[in-house]
Amino acid sequence: MATSSTAAGKTIVITGGAGGLGKAVASAFLSAGANVAIFDVNEDRLKATAAEWEKHGSSKFITSQTNITDEAAVSAFFGDVVAKFGRIDMLINNAGVMDKFDAAGTTALDMWNRVIGVNLTGAYLCTKAAVNAFQAQTPAGGTIISICSVASVRGLNAGAAYTASKHGLLGLMRNTAGFYGPKKIYSIAFLMGGMDTNIIDVFSTGFNEEGMGAMQKANPGFVVGETEIQLADVAKYCIFYSDPAIAESSNGTTVSISKNWPSA
């Protein structure tokens, strides 16, 4: 895998970066010598993360409370990153929210709008800002990693809203790869299996038991404590792809990080 020199000096933007996978990836990049810029909607998590990162020096990171569905706010954030660090080398579309395993007939419109808004519209807005920054800088180019899911290619790994959002994110990744690859802008998707992250916070108020049951029946074999992907291992993949030559070789592809769950 890549060494710390792969990422040293590069600038990495990570959405949803104050907790869970986003924070693990951002922390790994900081330790590897990269500049890191994160935004999140959770103010408490952002403050705690910034306090932890002070050991790296405030010149190495940016934290911002930004709404990923607000185009003006997203554009302003990317502008701040370029102003501080001079360029952007990688965007990691990590921010995501889960549904409650409802199928179409029981999915509330506000849940649909929230999940599609964060997981897909937010990723589109960040991708838009990133590719424009990548093209404007010298030398031009950059890499986008989209944290997709086994639900990007399967129908019963979540509810209707999350499944649709992750299928859409995979399409956005592929279109971006095809159009911008010749411009040295590369786009890759990680098809993630189960992880222990704060995305499951939504379950604190309950979930659709019928939908959960259908998912478990369609995808047997998950063992809590054994089947989850370690967040630190995902960070290693991200650092690996911070090398543009490696990213170019995988442009437009999906990388399965799932411990073969659901089984192929």
Automatic annotation (TrEMBL):
<keyword id="KW-0521">NADP</keyword>
<comment type="similarity">
    <text>Belongs to the short-chain dehydrogenases/reductases (SDR) family.</text>
</comment>
<dbReference type="InterPro" id="IPR002347">
    <property type="entry name" value="SDR_fam"/>
</dbReference>
<dbReference type="InterPro" id="IPR020904">
    <property type="entry name" value="Sc_DH/Rdtase_CS"/>
</dbReference>
<dbReference type="InterPro" id="IPR036291">
    <property type="entry name" value="NAD(P)-bd_dom_sf"/>
</dbReference>
<keyword id="KW-0560">Oxidoreductase</keyword>
<protein>
    <submittedName>
        <fullName>Uncharacterized protein</fullName>
    </submittedName>
</protein>
<dbReference type="GO" id="GO:0016491">
    <property type="term" value="F:oxidoreductase activity"/>
</dbReference>
<dbReference type="Pfam" id="PF00106">
    <property type="entry name" value="adh_short"/>
</dbReference>
